[in-house]
Amino acid sequence: MQVGDFYEFFADDARLVAEELDLKVSEKSSHGSSYPMAGVPVDDLLPYLKTLVERGYRVAVADQRDSEDTTREITRVVTPGTLVGVTGADARYLATVVRGDDEVGLAFVDVTTGRFHVTGVDDTDDAFTELYRFSPEEVLPGPDLRDDDAFIERVRETTDATLTLHGSEAFAPGRATHTLREQFGDGALDSVGVESQGAAARAAGAAVAYVDETGAGVLASLTRIQSYGSTDHVDLDATTQRNLELTETMQGDRSGSLFDTVDHTVTSAGGRLLREWLQRPRQSLGELERRQESVAALASAALARERLRETLDEGYDLERLASRAVHGSADAAALLRVRDTLELMPDLADAVESDPQLADSPLGRVFGRFDRAAAADLRDTIDEALVDDPPSSGTRGLFRKGFDPELDDLIEEYEEAKGWLDDLAAREKQRLGVTHLQVDRNKTDGYYIQIGKSEADAAPEEYREIKTLKNSRRFVTDELEEKERRLLRVEEQRGDLERELLDDLRGTVADHATLLQEAGRALAELDAFCSLAVHAAENGWVRPELTEGDALDVEAGRHPVVEQTVEFVPNDARFADDRRFLVVTGPNMSGKSTYMRQTALIVLLAQVGSFVPADAARVGLVDGIYTRVGALDELAQGRSTFMVEMQELSNILHSATEDSLVILDEVGRGTATYDGISIAWAATEYLHNEVRAKTLFATHYHELTSLADRLERVANVHVAADERDGEVTFLRTIREGPTDRSYGIHVADLAGVPDPVVDRADEVLSRLREEKAIEARGGSGSSEPVQAVFDLGSGSFQQAASDGGSADEGPSEPSGPSEPSGPSEPSGPTLDDDQREVLEDITDTPLNDLTPVEALTKVQEWQDELEGE
């Protein structure tokens, strides 16, 4: 509640806010009782509001209309999604989510910039992807979702947003449609392809209603509703955005993310736009080529680019300034920032139009998106009104002389009265012949003349004494009181008029909100293009060739983040019609994951319109990028590592299409070996045969490398390692073909595992390899039963020869048990009846009709029978 120059909190609210904001609590006495009170300055409310709403509080603000008003009314309710006046590069979205009959509707509103996005998605999984992408400050679930505990819990997992249960009536189809038509016009929904009674419209209408009901005062800045769909942008689910570390690392840090690496923007609006581009890559070839041409022109025109960046650095965030003007919180300093930014437009336009490369690029049309003449008129209006250095508080002294004749007259009258008072002491000293006389003012006595006691007898008859002090006496005169009344009257009239003029000027700026938003977006785009061009020029990135076909051919590609910190070994990534699924093998820590992620990031950057870290690249547009890279336990949600892994795999298998890019790392490692191989094998076949997406699949199941012989579009690549004299060097080079070594013990040694453990692990590994070789030879004359080995590559079994030959020598059809042909001793091991039955079953089993999972199940059954279980 506003009380004079402070917003005060009382009673329990005072104690709570004092603890949250580190304020001092005082005791207020009234009518014989006391209560706690804590306050913050009216002119410095925003940072305190920001702290409270970021901690999940809703703050009701009751304003005092004027100094004599003793009544208060709540003028606004500030929530995490409706806080106005913030600065910085991060957007602040309010989100609404509605589940309809055949879609889930979402709306995202940034009240600080006027941005308004709406879409409909197939299900709540897709909705969570959008929530992760926009990272809203506040989420309003529709009435059909409020009792869905799983949905509510996952919102808390996916975002850091505050959940708010808003009135159900705002989500009603009829009311939502009416709200949208009032805000955007009758044809707005049809123009953006949103069904008037659908879930997306319900979400959008509820968002507008909520912003209105909280009293944020920014509805006039919501001038355009934008619809987007799955065909507009590349699908990046929340898992993929985390795995690729687009805006933050796995540890939650901005530093080390892709955005942090390529962000060279000099304005907060440019940074906001660049972040949006990275999180929402496009599928439109025409739009991407326009962006590429802009980046290419800026990359090659270094002098013009730096001139643009230096000029942009002097500007401010027009989108947010427009919102503040509409909200009524823009002071004179904010309006001057609008003027100063609009003043940059001619210089920016000249920098573009005077350089042939830039003028011939799409940048030459960037300033044609808004009315430059209207922008110049608005700039002149502000400049003619406000002084260059207005006071930081209050409204006095804001306007230039000559701007308003009535104000000029009041100022002249004020200055005349003030001058008379300022000179009064000097005149009276000379007239009365005294030295200890001064004219001053306080709240109790008003203006007064004070004379030292030793000279007080010189006071003339017209002086009326009002107070005697220890060393002086105070007097007033009729003329002094009249001048004071005149001064106070003029002060009040001047203050009222200046507030009125400031409101009018602010209203004029608010009326141009659409113009300022369009100009602000143009400047943000120019800044984002400059940022991408700077990074491309400084890091040797190249312009990729974009196609609507199925190409993906990267020559000497690099990881855009990793190359900033280490000497990077470039690698190719080549896909073709007969090469759409690459099985990637190689040692631990050799760079498999980096190689796969860099390929995904190169595709993503290409579909942002950026240059890419490679010597050359040809990229066919994809509709989605899906990754499964590592997993962590989510025990609080009852999900183990393996469960998370399987859910991520399930999402990919259901969501990816023939036009997608899929990155899989170590599928099936969270369970038993047979289970893991089976899942990895089956997933590979499904991706290859059914989904047909371009896929990179890293694995330590070397059995999967044989898929290249069975599936026509599978190829093997591996990360090379050099082993000499027991020392292993990771070459970090991708080569064709498979590998059969993972060098896990070597990695354990590098990680600092104690030497006794490493040495013992080496001994155990050697022994296991020897035993495996003996078993493969059928025991080498021992009484052990013959081992049947299933060859995943050929899909058939092999039986070790009785002479000790290896099953690795080549596949062969299983044969039945040998019957003795004479009195001579059998050359192979003696088999009992149970063993003979197993061999007969092996012989009779139609192996070519079995899936890999069924075959492995049969192997398990036969082993159990041979072991007597």
What attributes does this structure have?
MutS, DNA mismatch repair protein, Chain A, domain 3; nucleotide-binding; Nucleotidyltransferase, domain 5; MutS, DNA mismatch repair protein, domain I; 6-stranded mixed sheet; 7-stranded mixed sheet; alpha/beta; about 850 residues; about 40% helix; DNA binding; DNA_mismatch_repair_MutS_clamp
Architecture overview:
The protein is an alpha/beta fold. The protein has 6 domains: 77 residues, DNA repair protein MutS, domain I (MutS, DNA mismatch repair protein, domain I); 137 residues, Nucleotidyltransferase, domain 5, CATH 3.30.420.110; 148 residues, MutS, DNA mismatch repair protein, Chain A, domain 3 (Orthogonal Bundle); 92 residues, MutS, DNA mismatch repair protein, Chain A, domain 3; 206 residues, Rossmann fold; 89 residues, no CATH class. Helices cover 42% and strands 18% of the residues. The protein has 27 helices and 29 strands. The protein has a 7-stranded mixed beta sheet, sandwiched between helices. Helix 3 packs parallel to helix 4, helix 5 crosses helix 7 and helix 12 crosses helix 20. GO terms for molecular function: ATP binding; DNA binding. Pfam families: MutS_I (PF01624), MutS_II (PF05188), MutS_III (PF05192), MutS_IV (PF05190), MutS_V (PF00488). Belongs to the DNA mismatch repair MutS family. Keywords: ATP-binding, Coiled coil, DNA damage, DNA repair, DNA-binding, Nucleotide-binding. It comes from Halospeciosus flavus.
